[in-house]
Amino acid sequence: MAVMALGVLVGCGKQGEALGEGGSAVSGSAGPAGARHGAKSLVTCDAPVATLALVENPNGYQYGSANGLPPSPLPLVRLLAQQSGCFRVVDRSAGLKATIREQELKEAGVLRQTGSTVHKGKGYEAQYSLTPALNFSEMDAGRQVGGLMAQIPVLRNFVGAAEQVKLKEAQVTLLLTDNETTEQVAAATGSVRVTDLGVGGLVVGRLSGGGAGWANSNEGKVIAAAFLDAHNQLVAQVRELAAKDLPPPVPKKGG
């Protein structure tokens, strides 16, 4: 019996990896093979209408707590925009800086001069710009409810239970600007609420744990889901936009 018990304990202590599990409501990939393993609730377009650049909010993003969140949600929104198929996405952040660096290296004579794929004047213009904003993020609403209940005599005995129930909420905004006219042609908000029952950190909702940054914090997952909701609201407007002239598609194997 002792040997059997030891075997059970050893089995319980096993660790493993589950690739593709965990993460936030924004997941999967996008590229030449199309959108893969994205959220089932993601709303898409049949064809892209223009090229799109995502730009950082000049006012930054204020989170309710640190929680190790990355400084910007832009990579998440960029993935959503490409997975949706509504736009061809052009890079105006780290990828653009890398492109400029390659051109400078070629001009300095570091890179080969013949057969090089690094050339000036071949970048695609962004016909639209998309700017995200975080309106608010509340991760501890339950404790505020408990404080209010403590002031009411008949409800004081339930304060402890109320403090264990936390409502995690977030609201975000996406603003779409036509770069030719500077007109804001579309705007959308997204919001989400998740209930944390305080039982071993269990979060009731469609968001799951694992990973790092946005994936391993309840706050990050709630904000990511809010951006997914905002994107879906925006697509309803984007579908009404007339398609603009698009650059040639990225070459594929056998194409």
Please explain how this structure is put together:
InterPro entries: Curli_assmbl/transp-comp_CsgG (IPR005534). The chain is α/β, with parallel strands linked by helices. It has one domain. It is 29% helix and 19% strand. Strands 2-1-3-4-5-6 form a six-stranded mixed beta sheet. Helix 2 runs parallel beside helix 6.
Q: Are there runs of 5+ residues with pLDDT below 50, and where?
A: 16-22, 154-162, 197-212
Strands side by side in the biggest sheet? 2-1-3-4-5-6
User: Element order, helices and strands?
Assistant: HEHEHEHHEEEH
Number of helices: 6
Taking the sheet with the most strands, its summary is: 6 strands, mixed
- Integer average pLDDT: 75
- Strand count: 6
Structural class call reads alpha/beta
Rg over CA atoms: 23 Å
Count of individual domains: 1
Protein name: Curli production assembly/transport component CsgG
InterPro entries: Curli_assmbl/transp-comp_CsgG
Pfam families: CsgG
Features:
single chain; 6-stranded mixed β-sheet; 6 helices; globular; alpha/beta; 6 strands; 255 residues; 19% strand
Summed up, what is this model?
It contains six helices and six strands.
Secondary structure: elements and pairs:
Layout lengths: L1 H11 L37 E5 L19 H11 L2 E4 L3 H14 L20 E11 L2 H10 L8 H6 L1 E13 L5 E13 L6 E2 L13 H21 L17
Helix pairs in contact: 2-6
